[in-house]
């Protein structure tokens, strides 16, 4: 159960100046923020349990441009991106995504056809269109898009449109229990166990463990964890993430390696090799 539930758990001062625990630092993967494709078509990979709290989304960008700078404002946001050619057959091997962005800046007719093909698959993944201002007049309801974004849009507008589009997607009811690699998270009682042993966690320690456990093997930067767990209204630095990770590892005891460090990037929840070989993933029981 939680210790001091509802109270801020960050301790500022000398304790936060300690260096993060890097003994189990892992090599940097080629694509740390992209999940491998687990199906024939990108499906929604939700982050968090509240659709209005989508802060870090995975975006699949379809473009025929030679460069990947389709929406410059994305470079200033923490959303993950993956770029593929604007060809329907490339979706077969595409990674999972929360949203699809179709580049319609140079060829409106080709973009319209692609959008209609995407919608004909029955996918519920939000579809956003990136346009020049001159292309706005050509867009109509039969395109099947959820929203349009001008290529000149600023970071605040782009982020808002992404979060709103992701938040409108209906989600099936989920259980309040997450199980992964011997860790059991009960979201109703705010309690956690590792291999049957109860963990005495503060509120933020619980939230951090819950978030990481729900996304095993996915790497999150300190900034992303700060945004997802502490929220936009938190004004402290990223060092508090390191402090909470260190405390979590101490409470996990001999299972501390479940929280791995990717050097110079951030942290991830490690799925044991034997679990990964059997295809075990986090489940809501």
Automatic annotation (TrEMBL):
Biological process, per Gene Ontology: regulation of DNA-templated transcription
InterPro entries: GlnR_N, OmpR/PhoB-type_DNA-bd, Sig_transdc_resp-reg_C-effctor, WalR-like, WH-like_DNA-bd_sf
Pfam families given in the database record: GlnR_1st, Trans_reg_C
DNA-binding residues (ranges): 175-271
Record's compositionally biased regions (Basic and acidic residues): 13-24
GO cellular-component term (any): cytosol
MF terms in GO: phosphorelay response regulator activity; transcription cis-regulatory region binding
Occurrences of domain OmpR/PhoB-type (ranges): 175-271
Cleaved signal peptide residues: none
Keyword Phosphoprotein: yes
Keyword Phosphoprotein tagged: yes
Biased composition (Polar residues): 1-10
Region (Disordered) residue spans: 1-29
Keywords: Activator, DNA-binding, Phosphoprotein, Transcription, Transcription regulation, Two-component regulatory system
PANTHER family with a match to the protein in the record: REGULATOR OF RPOS, TRANSCRIPTIONAL REGULATORY PROTEIN GLNR
Name used for this protein in its record: Response regulator transcription factor
Organism whose genome encodes this protein: Cryobacterium cheniae
């Amino acid at each position: 159960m939680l210790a001091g539930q509802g109270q801020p758990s960050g301790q500022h001062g000398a304790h936060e100046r300690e260096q993060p625990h890097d003994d189990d630092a892992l090599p940097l993967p080629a694509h740390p923020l992209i999940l491998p494709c687990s199906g024939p078509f990108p499906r929604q990979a939700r982050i968090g349990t509240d659709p209005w709290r989508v802060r870090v989304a995975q975006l699949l960008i379809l473009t025929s441009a030679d460069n990947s700078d389709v929406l410059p404002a994305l470079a200033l946001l923490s959303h993950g991106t993956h770029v593929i050619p604007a060809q329907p057959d490339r979706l077969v091997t595409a990674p999972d995504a929360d949203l699809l962005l179709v580049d319609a800046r140079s060829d409106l007719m080709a973009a319209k056809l692609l959008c209609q093909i995407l919608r004909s698959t029955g996918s519920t993944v939000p579809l956003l269109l990136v346009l020049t201002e001159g292309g706005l007049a050509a867009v109509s309801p039969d395109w099947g898009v959820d929203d349009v974004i001008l290529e000149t849009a600023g970071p605040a507008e782009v982020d808002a449109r992404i979060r709103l589009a992701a938040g409108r997607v209906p989600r099936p009811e989920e259980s309040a229990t997450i199980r992964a690699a011997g860790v059991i998270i009960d979201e109703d009682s705010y309690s956690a166990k590792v291999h049957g042993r109860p963990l005495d966690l503060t509120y933020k320690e619980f939230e951090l463990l819950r978030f990481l456990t729900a996304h095993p093997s996915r790497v999150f930067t300190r900034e992303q964890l700060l945004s997802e767990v502490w929220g936009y209204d938190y004004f402290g630095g990223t060092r508090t993430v390191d402090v909470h990770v260190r405390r979590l590892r101490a409470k996990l005891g001999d299972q501390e390696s479940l929280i791995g460090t990717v050097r110079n990037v951030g942290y991830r929840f490690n799925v044991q090799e034997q679990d990964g070989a059997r295809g075990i993933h986090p489940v809501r029981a």
